[in-house]
Amino acid sequence: MTDIGLQMDADDQAAAADANVASVGDYVALLKPRVMSLVVFTALTGLVLAPGHIHPVIGLCSLIAIAIGAGGSGALNMWYDADIDAVMSRTRRRPIPAGRVTPGEALAFGIILSAGSVMVLGLVANAVAAGLLAFTILFYVVIYTMWLKRWTPQNIVIGGAAGALPPVVAWAAVTGSVSLESLVLFAIIFMWTPPHFWALALFKSGDYERAGVPMLPVVAGAAETRRQILLYTLALAPVGLLPWFMGFGHALYGVVALIGGAGMLWLAFAIWLKPADDRPAKRMFGFSILYLFALFASLLVEALAHLAGLGA
């Protein structure tokens, strides 16, 4: 019986050890694939909209480099934020707090991917695009993750610059420069970020409070957060129309921007007018993703139609 008991204990320990071994999926999770998909999509739009010609292989390699840079910075974010992730319900199953990936492994993984992505983009595209990608990674990891996130309720506002830069990086990969049009794409994402994440923070404020993250609802209260969501959405709606006004967004984009902007405003007013109801904030969080996707998708469709000779 003792031998059987010892064998059972050994089997249990082996099973526990196996459960803590990182899988390929764990390393994919470190890349923050949902964030990466948004980065790739907005970068693709910037790449296609940019004037001039880029060889398809160089364009593909540039997009892959931007995606890997985003993934590397995501891994570094998870490495630094492992203590916060461990106490938040929506993040505690991530690979590091769950014990499947060690902090050192995540750190090395993130550094290698980040440095490699900048080098590749510099080799296949140009130094301007590589420099912008390096700045994006450093801004997200150092300025946002290590400083802003834990010290100020404006973390999302300032830190949103990192998430808004991918179309600018892609534009530079084609042209070797930054233009007003690429900065408008940056402005759309930058202005979209606060209402999107503050809507999430409204119904997840308990998580942020437990983790000690000074998100706006925790520091300034839900009422001020609702007011700020409304103010930023009032600013976002006209910014979203700028590509149409400037002529690099056409009829399809104009319709999408008008309808989507109206939807964002409706939800922002609903959040402001119904302080006891979390449903408008949850709807805003979901709809805002659709809104941003629709804006960039319509720009992409119009640009591809133009390249194919099917539109203006």
UniProtKB/TrEMBL annotation:
Q: What is its main location?
A: membrane
Q: Where are the transmembrane segments?
A: 35-51, 57-80, 101-121, 127-148, 155-174, 180-203, 229-246, 252-273, 285-308
Q: Does the keyword Transferase apply?
A: yes
Could you confirm whether the keyword Membrane appears in this record? yes
Q: What is its EC number?
A: 2.5.1.141
Other remarks on record?
Carbon 2 of the heme B porphyrin ring is defined according to the Fischer nomenclature.
What family does the entry list? Belongs to the UbiA prenyltransferase family. Protoheme IX farnesyltransferase subfamily.
Which purpose does this protein serve, as stated in its record? Converts heme B (protoheme IX) to heme O by substitution of the vinyl group on carbon 2 of heme B porphyrin ring with a hydroxyethyl farnesyl side group.
Give the PANTHER family listed for this entry. Answer: 4-HYDROXYBENZOATE SOLANESYLTRANSFERASE, PROTOHEME IX FARNESYLTRANSFERASE, MITOCHONDRIAL
Q: What is this protein called?
A: Protoheme IX farnesyltransferase
Gene name, Swiss-Prot/TrEMBL:
ctaB
